[in-house]
Specification:
It contains 5 helices and 19 strands. It is α+β, with helices and mostly antiparallel strands. InterPro entries: DUF8019 (IPR058332).
Length: 336
Amino acid sequence: MFFIFCVFFLVVKSQDELAESEEMESDCDMEFDMPFCSGNGTPMQENSFLNTLKILLSFNDMKVVNKIDQSEYEVEELERGPTLYDDGYSGVFKGSQILEIPQNEQTPYFTYSMWLFFPRTSGAERPRSVCPIFQKGNEETHYPSLYYDQKHKQFIVYIDQTVTSENSGLVSVSRPLANQWIYVSLVSTSSKLKLYINGVLDNIKIFQAAPKPNDHPLYVGNTPWFKDYCSMMFLLDKFQYYTEEIKAYFIQAQAQFQLESASIHFGCISCNLEEATGACISGYHLCTKIEFYSGVYNVARQLGWMDYGDFVWTYQDAIRKNDKKKGLAVCCIDSF
């Protein structure tokens, strides 16, 4: 008896990476990251990426525990909050809580993944609006790091030696809504840095020269030098660190994202019709009205690509050449 396994992994990508992936298509029919066995139970492939998982933080106990090596960390006045899966507790960070992890193995290839929840705030002015979620480094070295801009609701990854330059790193296109869990992944190779939000490739940075790894501690929740300036509150759960690039389809599986997200890619925001139609790479088209309101709308709203009442370009607009407006363009995969 023959068993045929057909596995399809559809990944939401930016235009640059989608175009690049077409040029670098694999000759393999299937790729496995998990171990699988022959009929007699003999492993035919060893577990790959799980061996590179170095940090998996748990907030279920009185102390924060790294489930990989059972290291324990004390965090002053750290409260415990709910989780997405209701399978334990998350950590509640309010600015004064700093989790410091001593120097860990750092390579040009790495992945940081975590669940984040930002409560809706009153909008009161804070001493600093851009605050760290995590950072490996010191006051002069900020890579790798993930910051959140509370004013503009965007994620920022600083790459150069300063956090004051507007062009110093990677800024998310998405502006996720408050009061919902968000799955964020930062993936690095020696030449590229990719930011995923809810399993969707949000933005990508091509390195001219790869940033050098540093030997400073990893700070989670805040940093000592921003403790007096950042009072940002957020919930953190399942913080993970891998010493390799985790594949996009695994990130999507972790995010448990909807099927629609696997068959779309971001086009452009506030663009005219010519820009909208040009935003879709080969194999994709401007989503039709039926496609958009059958699931794509939910993805666009959750990721903050659009607000109520915003205009959206559709395939029908491209045919009618209605080019008097500006709006959002989302591209759907061709199904024929």
